[in-house]
Amino acid sequence: MARRRAPRAPRERLGRERPGAVLRGPPITVTCECGESAKLAHGERWTCPGCGRGYDTGRIPREEYEVVRRTQLRYRALPVAIGLLIVVLGIFFSLTGNIINVFILLPLGLMVWFIFLRPAHQRRYRRAIADLPRWDLRADS
User: Fold this and answer.
1) Which of 50, 88, 124, 137 is most buried, taking the most CB atoms under 10 A from its CB?
2) Confidence (pTM)
3) Contacts of 86 (CB under 8 A, 6+ apart)
4) What residues form DSSP beta bridges with 28?
5) pLDDT over 90 for what percent of the chain?
6) Please, which residues have CB within 8 angstroms of residue 22's CB and are 6 or more apart in sequence?
7) DSSP annotation of 62
């Protein structure tokens, strides 16, 4: 006789974003007049569970949203590139037999990133997103 398994709880994601949000663009936070809010993809419709008002992010001009998406993607590329560079150097040092250099490279790379590069990168990102368009969506009639 086969035993039935109890249903599993959905897995929690480590990150705060939905799958595919990096390439499709950042979520749009819609806040209803009653205080409820939701994060939606561009073109998605949402009906407030509290008051029943409907919001459509498809009314946001696609060209303006593309500017936001490209800016976000551009500023995400630098940390990924630096991480890949450190990994490639670590593999190179491992394959050439310079294991001690890996133990120097990894902490040094992390220290340089978190002390020098990341704060400057965040300042530039904040300046870039301050100039991006914002939208004031109204509930559908």
Assistant:
1) 137
2) 0.68
3) 105, 106, 109
4) 40
5) 36
6) 72, 73, 76
7) H
